[in-house]
Specification:
The protein has a single domain (2-212), classed as 3-Layer(aba) Sandwich (Rossmann fold). It has helices spanning 2-7, 14-26, 32-40, 72-83, 101-107, 120-132, 169-173; strands spanning 61-64, 67-69, 91-95, 112-117, 138-142, 155-160, 175-185, 192-199, 204-212. It is globular and about 50 Å long. The protein is an alpha/beta fold. Helices cover 29% and strands 26% of the residues. The strands form two sheets. Strands 5-4-3-6-7-8-9 form a seven-stranded mixed β-sheet. The chain has a two-stranded antiparallel sheet with strand order 1-2.
């Protein structure tokens, strides 16, 4: 029964995932590592049953607590940007676990994922979801994302799934030399831009990539 749930039927079937992958390719996603993982990862298990039939649409969907699961294109694009020009990544910090879908994608293409979530019930759901997929290389903490997770720094990659007005200083400090951070920056009701920040020996190189819409980066924890 569980295997059938993971495989999906009808609008949650492998055929539907294959259509999603075709759309991602048409949208410009080229990294085979990302495409292969998203082809085999059952996105529908990360959301409530009432929305599962919409899991493979190219849209953000609510997951409760005023949070959303990012549209497949954004998950694929951010992951691809993190991996670009790299054969592998060791440890990656994720800010904003959410329902755990982006976490699961990352865990299948990098060495270890350290995921921070400020909303405890969401974190618990995410753990349940990723455990179904038997992913063993994820650590979770319930904390303010602006603090990062200094215990395991520096990180070769940092992926942020909420938009601050400015990049938190702690995250910059926890990025390894040569490391890359993918982060949306901007006000919730204003212009948000997806940025890629690369740390060099002497400075941070910032690339502004494309307009995005993310939930705001909030302080504290719930």
């Amino acid at each position: 029964m569980m295997q059938r749930h993971l495989q999906g039927i009808g609008m949650t079937s492998q055929r539907t995932r294959d259509r999603m992958i075709k759309r991602l390719i048409e949208q410009g996603i080229t990294d085979e590592r990302v495409l292969n993982v998203m082809r085999t990862t059952p996105r529908h298990i990360f959301m409530d049953e009432a929305l599962a039939s919409r899991a493979y649409e190219d849209t953000a969907l609510p997951i409760g607590y005023n949070q959303t699961i990012s549209q497949p294109y954004i998950v694929a694009k951010m992951t691809e940007l993190l991996l670009e020009n790299r054969e592998s990544l060791g440890n990656v910090l994720e800010i904003g676990t959410g329902c755990g879908y982006q976490t699961a994608i990352l865990a299948q293409v990098v060495g270890d994922v350290y995921s921070v979530e400020r909303i405890l019930p969401l974190q618990k759901k995410a753990k349940t979801h990723t455990e179904l997929l038997k992913l063993k290389n994820i650590r979770y903490t319930h904390s303010d994302g602006g603090w990062g997770w200094a215990d395991y720094a520096p990180y070769e990659g940092i992926l942020v799934a909420a938009a601050p007005n400015e990049v938190p200083e702690a995250l910059l400090e926890q990025l390894a030399i040569g490391g890359v951070m993918i982060i949306p920056v901007g006000e919730q009701d204003g212009d948000q831009i997806l940025q890629r920040i690369t740390r060099t020996e002497s400075h941070f190189q910032i690339e502004e990539l494309e307009p995005v819409i993310f939930v705001p980066f909030l302080a504290g924890k719930e």
